[in-house]
Amino acid sequence: MGTSTVVLSLRVLLVVLGLVGSDPDPLQDYCVADTKKGTRENFYCNGVTCINPEIVNTSHFVTSALSKPGKIGTVLGFNVTLATIFNLPGMNTQGLTMARIDIGPNSLVPPHSHPRASEVAILLKGSLLVGFINTSNHLFTQNLKSGDCFVFPRGMIHFLYNTDSKVQALAVSGLSSQNPGVQMASLAAFANGLAMPDKVSKKLFQINDQDVTSIRTSLGG
Question: pTM for the complete prediction?
Answer without folding.
Answer: 0.79
